[in-house]
Amino acid sequence: MFGEASFSDDARFSGVSFSGEAWFVGASFSGEAWFLGASFSGTARFVEASFSSRVWFSGASFAGSALFGGATFASEALFGISTFFDATLFCGPSFTDPASFGEVSFNGTVRFGGASFSGTTSFSRASFSGAAQFGRTSFAGDAFFNGASLAGDARFDEASFSGETWFHKATFSGDACFKGTQFEAATRLGPLACGRRVTLDGAVFGQPVTLEIAARWVSCARTRWASTATLHLRYAELDLRDAVLEYPVVVSARPTPFPLPHQRTDDTLPETELSDQTPGVGLTTLGGIDAAHLALHDIDLSGCRFAGAVHLDQLKVDGWCTFASTPTSWYWRFPWRWSPRNTLAEEHHWRIRNAAHPEQATVQGWRPPPADAPELRPAAVAALYRQLRKSLEDGRNEPDAADFYYGECEMRRHDVTRPRGERALLIAYWALSGYGLRATRALVWLGAAMVATIAVMVLWGLPADGPKPTTTGREVAVSQQIVLITDTPAPVNPTGPLTERVTTERFEKALRVVINSVVFRSSGQDLTTAGTYTEMTSRLAEPVLLGLAVLAVRSRVKR
Question: What span, in angstroms and rounded, lies between the C-alpha atoms of 383 and 381?
Fold first, then answer.
């Protein structure tokens, strides 16, 4: 029992075995303190102890709880290769000089809440078997967690890192929480692997930083980047809700494992906890952010919610970014299927909410909305399509921009607040050519119009016989002027059964009339009154349908 004891000289307890409770509460060590290889079988209490000089706990073994709450370490503190078998509490201690916990094994819960590290701090290759609590811990110098293994949840809530922060090869089997953490000078975080969720909600990055994270989920809600940032991710579902981007931020999916810094070129970050996942990266929401500084590369956006974000027209979408698609199954009531195109998650949610049979729409392939997804009107979804279309057009991605134009028109067509005339025009535009984007639909209508025109011409439009010019005059005396009048009789409507009017000759004449109508030319063929009006109609409608088909093809091949 050394409670409140004062050691003016060096205190040497190296190799000592403390069989019961070791009581050093309030003890003062003026000289160096040596606990090398010491063994503590019971609780070790160093609460509010004061170490004025260097202290060694290297190789020490703590079988019971180790309590260092409020302790003061004025010089270097060395705990390397120590083993803590039970709870370890460093709540509120102060480390003035470098502190080393390298290769320490923590088998119980570890609490460093409120601790203050003024110098360099190292937890390199440390092993944490239980939960690790670093909430509100202050790291004034560089902090090293290289190679650290954390089997339980690790919490760094509201911690402060004033120097460089190193998590190279760190692995988290549980959650890694950095809520409200301040990274004032960190230029790199990772590469690190987390078997569950990495939470950076409310964290602040003050300098240009690169994050390299392999995890199932990464949450950056309300995260603030005060400078440029690059997020290289693997496996993760990323949440950027309400994030503050003051400078350009790039989010990209890394296809290969992260190489380890300062290692051989073939050494990569172990990803054992994520072996059952695919390495792709998905974005879940951009609500509440200003997307003007955001760039996405190779990100899955099929489930991303864009509602609430501003300046989406300035969002950079590069690489192989994928969006949700329309269902591929046949429509359950009518014999047709949805035309394939890229869509937004908001359209999926709107169709589920407005479907007469939501469960049937879900079976078809429309994605149901999450519980927290806002209910948007068609006009709001159309605005999202419009802004993202502008973004894709600026990136020279015309084919995908065409899909978003289709989605915008779809939402405008379903918007009951728009004038009836506009909606009627959109319905006709959709039915005839898919808003000028479905060449097959326009060609089908063109073919149907040509067949109908040929049928009308064969049955009613062509006269029974081609009218021949007739010259008439009257007989006059010799040497008088002869007056002759040449006239063409009006075409005679065909008569008789309809089946008798269908002949090869009449079909060829009708075909010439239709082909000329498609290219907006007159055939010069004699026609009945019905045939004349039919030709006039076809000369207006069929070139329009042909133009819509050409426009649709152009939208798919335009660069």
Answer: 5
The radius of gyration computed from the CA coordinates of the chain, to the nearest angstrom, equals 40
Distance of CA 145 to the CA centre of its chain: 30
Is residue 418 classed as helix, strand or coil in its secondary structure?
Answer: coil
CA distance 49 to 26: 4
Decide: helix, strand or coil at residue 482: coil
pLDDT one-digit tens code per residue, 62-110: 999 999 999 999 999 999 999 999 999 998 899 999 999 999 999 999 9
- Close Cβ partners of 558 (under 8 Å, ≥ 6 residues apart): 398, 399
**CB of 438 closer than 8 Å to CB of 336:** no
**What's the CA gap between 117 and 79, in Å, rounded?**
14
CA 159/CA 204 separation, integer angstroms: 11
- Both tokens of 396, joined, read 């020279």
Name 446's Cβ contacts closer than 8 Å, sequence gap at least 6. Answer: 518, 542, 545, 546, 549
Chain centroid to Cα 501, Å, comes to 63
CA dihedral 378, 382, 384, 390 (to 10 degrees): 180
Q: DSSP string of 145-190? A: -TT-EE-S-EE-TT-EE-S-EE-TTEEESS-EE-TT-EESS-SEEE
